[in-house]
Write a structure and sequence with these properties.
eight-stranded parallel barrel; alpha/beta; binds cytidine-5'-monophosphate; 11 helices; TIM Barrel; 236 residues
Length: 236
């Protein structure tokens, strides 16, 4: 997985995705296929993107009973993505079942995709979490709790905001992946995200991969915007 920036391909159809990817010519990217695109286009979109040599994070955030997640992951493993995910709120048994499914689903000796768990969505504020999920502890504690549970379940990392990463690193260590959406350049629109951070802050916190969607995909100059994120991350 080449780049520190994962581009969220939040487009409604293959047509827009291919148009977007073509602007990057032969450059190899790390991209995220989420619900919007996968539910419209199905598995064939993964094969098309893979054929172009890009790394793929399939962001379907599975959250169901362990048996269902196990079977679903068996199927997803055969697509050949690099990274997949579940909701940590599904619990330890569900996360373990997800890993078993992935291992059972990869063909002959291939490496299973990495699997990470969503902790608290970056569109959730602490006030919202307390009011709607009835979680009484501070948001940081909830995120750390879910990260610890994901680690105990054998997962490779978590999705969280950049603000929680140094705490996760201190508790769980540097091998554990932290993938952070909610990344914005200083003057970008925040939209529906609540726990946002700049690439500079993400890098300083020890983030493994930043997920960037609208700031690149809806920019008039997607390549220029992508490079701005990379430069900000690299501090140049
Ligand atoms: O456009 P923006 O940069 O806000 O896109 C963020 C992407 O990351 C979206 O595709 C969203 O579904 C995804 N995501 C998120 N928060 C999470 C997990 C994934 O925003 N906790």
């Amino acid at each position: 997985m080449q780049s520190s920036v994962i581009i969220a391909l939040d487009f409604p159809s293959k047509y827009e995705v291919l148009k977007f990817l073509n602007t990057f010519n032969e450059e190899k990217l790390f991209v995220k296929v989420g619900m919007e695109l996968f539910y419209q286009e199905g598995p064939s979109i993964i094969y098309e993107i893979k054929e172009k040599g890009h790394g793929i994070f399939l962001d379907l955030k599975l959250h169901d009973i362990p048996n269902t997640v196990n079977s679903a992951m068996k199927g997803l493993a055969s697509l050949g993505c690099d990274l997949v995910n579940v909701h940590a709120a599904g619990g330890q048994e569900m996360m373990e079942a997800a890993l078993e499914g992935l291992e059972a689903g990869v063909s002959g000796g291939a490496k299973r995709p990495l699997c990470i768990a969503v902790t608290q969505l970056t569109s959730t504020s602490e006030e919202q979490m307390k009011r709607e999920q009835l979680i009484g502890v501070p948001l940081q504690e909830s995120v750390l709790h879910y990260a610890t549970l994901a680690n105990k379940s054998g997962l490779d990392g978590v999705v969280c905001s950049s603000h929680e990463v140094s705490m996760i690193r201190e508790t769980i260590g540097n091998e554990f992946l932290t993938v952070t959406p909610g990344i914005r350049l200083k003057d970008d629109a925040v939209g529906d995200q609540k726990r946002v951070a700049t690439p500079e802050l993400a890098r300083a916190a020890g983030v493994s991969y930043m997920v960037v969607g609208r700031s690149i995909t809806r920019s008039g100059d997607p390549i220029g915007s992508y490079r701005k994120f990379i430069r900000a991350w690299e501090g140049v």
